[in-house]
Amino acid sequence: MAVCVAVIGKENAPKYVSCLNPDLELQFHYKVHTSLDVVEEKLTSVGKTSGDVRELYLGLLFSSEEHKIFGYVTNTKIKFIIVVESSNTLLRDNEVRTMFRRLHAVYTDVVCNPFYIPGDPITSKIFNTTVKNIMAGNT
User: Fold this and answer.
1) Model pTM score
2) Which of 33, 5, 7, 37 lies closest to 19 in space, CA to CA?
3) What is the structure's pLDDT at 24?
4) Judging by DSSP bridges, how do beta strands 67-73 and 79-85 pair with one another?
5) Signal peptide span per the entry (predicted)?
6) Domain that holds residue 29
7) Total domains, the chain
8) What are phi and psi of 34, to 5 degrees?
9) Edge-to-edge, what's the strand order for the sheet holding 79-85?
10) Is 60 exceeded by the pLDDT of residue 51?
């Protein structure tokens, strides 16, 4: 389903990036970071119109001939980015929301671990396995 999943910290530093094809990881780093501008734009426009209440799911951030990039922001301003292939026309908005919910739940488990130091990159094997399952389309 997804070809790349990224977790970006408050200061736009990558905490975790995983791609199906490791040879294209640099290309996906670029796409993820370019989509962060759209995330910031959406967050400021939503904040101006409705106060501080916002939807965590930001929807489609960027679309190209090859990929569609979706975004999600937690209340603590941690950003989740999922990149899918544009040719995947069977993917519905509901399924993308479900992927983000699963990602957010497993991220919460990692952060609640007493041995995790806030701000460090995510190195959890359980988190990595769950992300691989999300990318494979396993529920």
Assistant:
1) 0.88
2) 5
3) 85
4) antiparallel
5) none
6) 2-136
7) 1
8) -70, -30
9) 14-19, 2-8, 79-85, 67-73, 57-63
10) no
When pLDDT is averaged across residues 17-44 and rounded to a whole number, the result is 89
Residues in the chain: 139
Q: Is the pLDDT of residue 43 over 80?
A: yes
Closest CA to 107 of 87, 131, 137: 131
What CATH number has the domain bearing residue 17? 3.30.450.70
Model confidence band, residue 92 (pLDDT cutoffs 50, 70, 90): confident
- Please list, in sequence order, all residues whose beta carbon lies within 8 angstroms of the beta carbon of residue 81, skipping any fewer than 6 positions away: 4, 5, 6, 7, 8, 32, 35, 36, 39, 61, 69, 70, 71, 72
pLDDT value at 53 more than 60: no
The DSSP line for 61-125 is: EEE-SSEEEEEEE-TT--EEEEEEETT-TT--HHHHHHHHHHHHHHHHHHHTSTTPPTTSPP--H
Residue 57's DSSP bridge partners are 72
Q: Residue 135 is encoded by which pair of tokens?
A: 């990318």
